Amino acid sequence: MSEKIDYSKGIYDARQLGTGRMLILGLQHMFAMFGATVLVPLLTGLSVSTTLLCAGLGTLLFHLVTKGKVPAFLGSSFAYLGGFSIVAPMLADADGNLTVVNTKMLPYACAGVALSGILYLLVSLLISTFGIRRIMKFFPPVVTGPIIISIGLILAPSAITNCESNWLLAFVALGTVIVCNIWGKGMVKILPILIGVLVSYAVALVTGAVNFEAIAAADWFGIPLHKSAMGLFAIDGSPEFISAMFTIIPIALATMMEHVGDIAAISATVGHNYINDPGLNRTLMGDGLATAMAGLLGGPANTTYGENTGVLALSRIYDPLVIRIAAVMAVILSFSPKFEAVINTIPTGIIGGISFVLYGMISAIGVRNVVENHVDFTNSRNLIVAAVILVCALGFNSVGGLTFAVGGVSINLSGLAIAAIVGILLNAILPGNDYEFDAANGSDAPSSGNLQV
Q1: 106: which of 88, 299, 323, 393 fits an S-S bond (Cβ 3.0–4.6 Å)?
Q2: Distances 44 to 39, 67, 168, 233 between C-alpha atoms, Å
Q3: If we measure between CA atoms, which residue out of 331, 299, 301, 330 comes closest to residue 232?
Q4: Max alpha carbon distance in the chain (Å)?
Q5: Residues 6+ apart with CB under 8 A from 340
Q6: By C-alpha distance, which of 412, 415, 413 is closest to 393?
Q7: CA distances (Å), 328 to each of 18, 334, 336, in order?
């Protein structure tokens, strides 16, 4: 008779569970990341298939760089939605709904994403050279928190525009996400976006709001890469490329801090300090390489997913092999245009309802960032840094950013780019920067929770 497995202390080698159970556990992790990951291409116009491919390959690349030690899944980052909305905003259709993909500018946005991944590599190198405490002093919560808040607020108008196409579906989606987040238990609490989409999609089916023509016309198998959408071919030195670069790269400053928080959360869940072993420099490098690859291939930026950390806590299966199985499943699924067509039938109203709470959550995460790190706003220095960041981000965004010429090339700095640059400079120049990063546990950078940024 086989020996009974004790789950109470966690399972660090999933092979003892057998192949069948490992596949089921991998499928569970894929579903955990699925709802949030495919939402990003639906909001930006990117390919769902390419996004799944980049999530799977990015996760495998991350595991390679981190020596296969960290049980993290890399899915689509919501933080970059603000950059996409500025560089390649969705265009209005005949009815005024923002559903038309900006095919001209989308590759430039992806090129910006690819170069933002290189910023991860630079910070990783600096941490290896100068130490984590010295580098993190330039990116305290008083800078990154307001930037994250700004991202959500900039996106808010597009959520309302999408909701206006069908308020019934929007309210059903929004209500479902809220109920799952507040009263859900177990996997229900971890999968609020996926459940919200499924419930509201069922209502859309009943009310006849779904068009199935595209599904019938789609092939079962296809290559999930599209040359016309790749960031690789948009790195051309044009004004569009340079402006996209300045808009999107600074977003990495916020997502890197979220990365630190997620790695800290995984460390606390598993009982192993991954910030020290394999090291934050390696995890940042893995995340950066995955993001750079995704951008070059025409996908959204990748980020470590809080949803999958929740699955680790519930299942107590901590073996990174299970995460890699989920990544392979995502890659396999990306080769089905038929599946992408099904995802693309989700009505705009549902997207609006999901993004209604999502964009607010992004800003709320920024607020939580400064609260959990005890940023003292009675200190005039901190108040000035945060105030200038918020006004730069929202103010300059409302007037289309700041445009100037360098060597005959017209460059546009978005509100987010200006806010990040000014915030970092102010924090470095003004006296009283006493922020110290705690490398022992990484607790200075909170995780983004279930709705992953």
Answers
A1: 88
A2: 9, 33, 23, 19
A3: 299
A4: 78
A5: 47, 48, 49, 218
A6: 415
A7: 18, 10, 14
Per the prediction, the chain carries an average pLDDT of 85
Q: Report which of 13, 7, 20 is spatially closest to residue 319, judged by C-alpha positions.
A: 13
Q: How confident is the model at residue 407 (pLDDT cuts 50, 70, 90)?
A: low
pTM (two decimals): 0.81
Candidates 397, 429, 243, 334; CA nearest to 57 is: 334
Give the C-alpha separation, 228 to 105, whole Å: 11
Q: Is the separation of the CB atoms in 281 and 439 below 8 Å? A: no
- pLDDT tens per residue across span 152-190: 888 888 888 889 889 999 999 999 989 988 888 877 777
Phi, psi of 317 (to 5 degrees): -100, 105
* Structure token pair of residue 119: 């910023």
Structural contact between residues 144 and 254, judged by C-beta atoms closer than 8 angstroms? yes
Question: In the structure encoding, which two tokens stand for residue 390, read together?
Answer: 């918020």
Per the model's pLDDT, the better-predicted residue between 292 and 9 turns out to be 292
Bridge partners for 277 per DSSP: none
Give residue 286's pLDDT.
96
Q: What is the DSSP string of 213-257?
A: HHHHHS-S---S--GGG-GGGG-S--HHHHHHHHHHTTHHHHHHH
Quote the DSSP letter at residue 58.
H
Tokens representing residue 271 in the block: 């009982």
DSSP 8-state code for residue 16:
G
* Orientation angle between helical segments 192-206 and 348-372, nearest 10 degrees: 160
**Residue 217 CB neighbours (<10 A):** 10
Q: Output the CA angle 50-54-59, nearest 5 degrees.
A: 155
By the 10 Å C-beta count (0-12 exposed, 13-18 middle, 19+ buried), 276 is classed as middle
Distance (Å, whole) CA 365 – CA 163: 22
Whole-angstrom distance, CA of residue 283 vs CA of residue 263: 8
Distance of CA 414 to the CA centre of its chain: 20
What does the block give as tokens for 389? Answer: 């960041």
Number of Cβ within 10 Å of residue 227's Cβ equals 9
Lookup: tokens for 267: 């460390």
Q: End-to-end distance of the chain based on CA atoms, in angstroms?
A: 46
Question: Residues with Cβ < 8 Å from 160, sequence gap 6 or more?
Answer: 352, 356
Q: Concatenated DSSP letters for 77-125?
A: -STTHHHHHHHSPPEE-TTS-EEE--TTTHHHHHHHHHHHHHHHHHHHH
**Using an 8 Å Cβ cutoff, are 396 and 446 in contact?**
no
